[in-house]
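[job 4471] stage=fold_predict status=RUNNING
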Amino acid sequence: MNQSDFNAFCKSLPQTTHVVQWGNADVWKVGGKLFAVGGWNKDTDQFAITFKVTDMGFEILPEMPGVRPAPYLASRGMKWVQHYDLPGLSDTELRNHITASYEMIRDKLTKKLKRELGFGT
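[job 4471] inference complete, writing structure tokens
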């Protein structure tokens, strides 16, 4: 998944916002909360995508070539991984993981904020 595909996919998810920060990274949020980051990996010159995962995902995904615990976030005890090099995950797998990250973050928003964003309850 390239930068353009990443940004188009994240933009397609309901009520997302995009900012560029942290050294020119594409940062995607829902309800003001981070769910995905895309930026260039200086070590491999590949577009790296960082996203939140479940506990099980955090155990399994970093065993795959091209996937690692997310720099900075994982070192602070957060369950985030980074797809940073080939072969990594397929575009379909990346879309599924980004969607799951989005849903985990969205589901933890306050009831009031969910209502304001049109998510019900």
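[job 4471] summary: The mean pLDDT is 94.
[job 4471] exit 0
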